[in-house]
Amino acid sequence: MKDPLSHFPGYALRRASNASMAAFARALEPLNMRISEATVLMFIAANPGIAQARLCAALDIQSANMTPLLTRLESQGLVRREPLDGRSNGLHLTPSGLARAEDVNGAIAQHEAALMARVAPEHRAHLMTALEALWTH
Amino acid sequence: MKDPLSHFPGYALRRASNASMAAFARALEPLNMRISEATVLMFIAANPGIAQARLCAALDIQSANMTPLLTRLESQGLVRREPLDGRSNGLHLTPSGLARAEDVNGAIAQHEAALMARVAPEHRAHLMTALEALWTH
DNA sequence: TATTGTTATACTCTATAACTATA
DNA sequence: TATAGTTATAGAGTATAACAATA
Q1: pTM for the whole thing?
Q2: Which of chain A's residues have a Cβ under 8 Å away from the Cβ of B19?
Q3: pLDDT tens digit string along B99-115?
Q4: CB contact at 8 A, B90 and B83
Q5: How far is residue B79's CA from residue B62's CA, in Å, rounded to a whole number?
Q6: How far apart are CA B26 and CA B55, in angstroms?
């Protein structure tokens, strides 16, 4: 059977990303977190007090989709919204959130190691540079 | 602002794939096709008569999701299902489907060229090899 | 006027279970 | 019994429009 798409970088990119995300989602299952939630948690951990709008811009997530995501994290006691002024929220991790961020960090490290183990060492730096060129504005 | 994830290959992979797919979806808009539909069309064009189940396996699309996809393509007069035996379908492109596959091919070529133009030439071969290692079974 | 956050809604992709018809 | 295809359904990501409150 012929695969007319496998030699296209864009197609390989899609397949590789799908495989990676499926594996990462499985790695997050024991923590009961989605990829998007884990991403937001890590970002708040690195930027305590960040405004919701800035988080949206940094992650390319629309505010309409960020609202329910943060509400879930807040209702789990992981994140706290703190008014910065009358209309914007600063985001903080609770102690539980900090602990969970540690766990997520471990899952990420494990996932990334398994991922890069599949790639021959001489390609790794090139892969990283190329991928960044593809999405960085 | 700190980005605690940007140095992770898995994260860069996700962001790059999202950016690529969004651009490709825009490129397909004039053809009124989704990415998954375009993918299936190209695959049938390269493998006329392929059974539905084999197409599912090759693209990692579940049969339950392939059925409505093919029904859409068939109702647009692009694909024809032809019984192979009492329970399996061979898939063929109609003349309209062949013409549409040509258009899709052009959109893919344009998209892939724009994508790789963002990557420095010395990284391109490495990128392709690395991506294939990440999703090939 | 522009920005922040929210609500409602819809579309796409993906996943599972249950079912039929056939091999 | 196993396989091919279908149906129904649900979850998750993403997109737009409309809105209230505030800068």
Answers
A1: 0.96
A2: 134-135
A3: 999 999 999 999 999 99
A4: yes
A5: 19
A6: 25
